[in-house]
């Protein structure tokens, strides 16, 4: 099996992928705010590890921000969480996360996602997926599961 490399893609295909990734960054942020409002968002490595060990089937997405290369402990934590998620068929999204993107206005005013954003777990809703949840799942199925490498990182809007 051969993998399509980004260098082999046309400029138009790369531009289209980048545009889609930007659009999905906004949708992911809205999805996180909805999850925060409905208590479906877990943050922090310790709390995420507890949820993953008890109820991995309830986790819809594992969201991992890009780690600073000099912080080896965060890098090791990410690798272990990624391995667990792959083993349990949990979708993994890598994001570019700035300090300013951890707060956004939700329906209850300005909401802060968390002070510890080394790992975020988004649980399935009790009812059905919202439109935003469904679009994020479609994005994952379209861009992340294809054979293009390197995989795009979603950039959360500022």
TrEMBL record:
GO biological process per UniProt: regulation of cell cycle
Domain of life: Eukaryota
Stored Gene3D superfamilies: 3.30.1330.30
GO cellular component: cytoplasm; nucleus
Name of the protein in question: Uncharacterized protein
């Amino acid at each position: 099996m051969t993998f399509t490399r980004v260098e082999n893609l046309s400029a138009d295909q790369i531009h289209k992928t980048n545009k889609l990734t930007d659009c999905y960054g906004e949708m992911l942020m809205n999805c996180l705010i909805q999850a925060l409002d409905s208590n479906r968002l877990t943050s922090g490595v310790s709390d995420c590890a507890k949820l993953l060990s008890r109820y991995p089937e309830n986790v819809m997405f594992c969201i991992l921000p890009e780690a600073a290369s000099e912080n080896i402990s965060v890098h090791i934590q990410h690798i272990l969480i990624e391995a667990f998620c792959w083993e349990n068929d949990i979708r993994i999204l890598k994001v570019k996360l700035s300090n300013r993107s951890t707060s956004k206005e939700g329906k209850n005013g300005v909401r802060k996602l968390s002070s510890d954003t080394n790992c975020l777990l988004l649980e399935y809703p009790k009812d059905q997926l919202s439109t935003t949840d469904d679009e994020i799942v479609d994005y994952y199925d379209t861009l992340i599961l294809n054979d293009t490498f390197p995989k795009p990182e979603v950039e959360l809007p500022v």
